[in-house]
Amino acid sequence: MSNPADVVVVGGGAVGSACAWALSGAGARVTVVQRPDTPGEAWRAAAGMLAAQIEARADDPLLTLALAGRSFYRRRAAELRESTGIDIGLIECGALQVAQTEAEVADLQEQVAWQRQQAHHADWLDVDDVRDGWPWLAPCLGAFWSPDDGALDPARLVAAFQRGASARGVTFVADVAVGLERSGDRLMGVVGEQRRYSAPIVVIAAGAWAGRLENLPRPLSVEPVRGQMLEYRWPAGVPPTIVYGNHCYLMYRGAELLAGSTMEHVGFDVQVTSEGIADVRRRVGALYSPVAAGAPERSWAGLRPGTPDGLPIIGPEPRLSGLWYATGHGRNGILLAGITGELIARGVSGEAIGTELAAVRPTRFWSW
After folding, report:
1. In degrees rounded to 5, what are phi and psi of residue 343?
2. What pLDDT is attached to residue 229?
3. pLDDT grade for 356, boundaries at 50, 70 and 90
4. Which residue of 104, 132, 195, 332 pairs with 99 in a disulfide if CB–CB is 3.0 to 4.6 A?
5. Residue 164 CB neighbours (<10 A)
6. Which residues are within 8 A (CB) of 240 and not within 5 positions of it... i.e. 6 or more apart?
7. Average pLDDT of span 286-300
8. Phi, psi (5° rounding) for residue 108?
9. DSSP alpha helix (H) spans, the chain
């Protein structure tokens, strides 16, 4: 074996890099085994929204964790910038979910009422309010407004986590993790295509590829979900914003208007399709007509790590001491990356985190 460490993190994307940054900040010696640049990695394709409230339905078990994820970046953005020189591009522009049918009006008003009962900032805007605030949008029947949601730049975020972790002594290795190395009930480390990586603690943060690792104590219910996205020019004179519609969104990033996204179960196929592009253009075009009328400047696809119930898998594996999961984040990988790393570091250090991770515990699948 080589590269002895306290912890090996499998995966160097947003979640894996966040785990390495937090673990090294707690004093651990960390090795990150990250795939060489691989088409479809979720963080490379992500929009970077921090839509903790907009995407939450009434009684959503993920809301508390999502709010903590959004709060993490408010707390840590300045620290990351000062320690690494990288601005993660955090904007707190709010997010709007428009209603285009009466059924959506009822659903969104219920969502607003539930969130307000939990003392969260949320408002229902009538037709005139939406027209006055967002005159460039297509007509709608009202909207749910979440003023505290926002976005950041995923590429800058990963670069900041990696630079900060490297400064703390973390080793990043370009290799493809094949599986765990075990001796009976003892975790020995990780087997890569190139060599072995020894450590008594392993964190699996391998995104859509996590379920393909060998020698796990139970099946890992993570599968790739393809999302296709488009880029247009952001309309001149329009302030930064995020707008959701019917299974779609548009958002500001620099001079770009990002439009997305599909949800396709096609394995590890990262091809952009004419059908996918047409679907995104049709849905987002119902919010902002130039998207439907004009061809995109760029299109791409990413593979989200999806789970059967749409919630991530975070926490310790009770059948194998030292094994931790930090995967399956689906559409919320960027939103939850920082707080996931923080919770993993606390758990590895021996702090009790069970209550905070009850809804995303690994044992909810494959309990046999």
Report:
1. -70, -40
2. 97
3. confident
4. 104
5. 23
6. 91, 93, 252
7. 94
8. -70, -35
9. 14-25, 42-45, 63-84, 102-117, 127-133, 154-167, 274-285, 289-293, 333-348
Q: Is the dihedral of CA 324, 22, 18, 145 positive or negative?
A: positive
Q: pLDDT tens across 185-239, in order?
A: 899 999 999 999 999 999 999 999 999 999 999 999 999 999 999 999 999 999 9
Phi, psi of 49 (to 5 degrees): -75, 145
Residues 162, 172 contacting (CB under 8 angstroms): yes
Nearest Cα to Cα of residue 178 among 123, 216, 134: 216
Strand partners, 144: 97, 124
CB 114 within 8 A of CB 59: yes
pLDDT at 1: 38
| Angstrom distance (rounded) from CA 98 to CA 78 | 32
Q: How far apart are CA 204 and CA 220, in angstroms?
A: 10
Per-residue pLDDT band at 367 (split at 50, 70, 90): low
**In angstroms, rounded to a whole number, what is the distance separating the alpha carbons of residues 164 and 178?**
27
- Map tokens 């995407």 to a residue: 55
Question: 316 in helix, strand or coil?
Answer: strand
Quick one: tokens of 63? 């809301």
Average pLDDT, the chain: 95
Distance separating alpha carbons of residues 330 and 62, to the nearest angstrom: 12
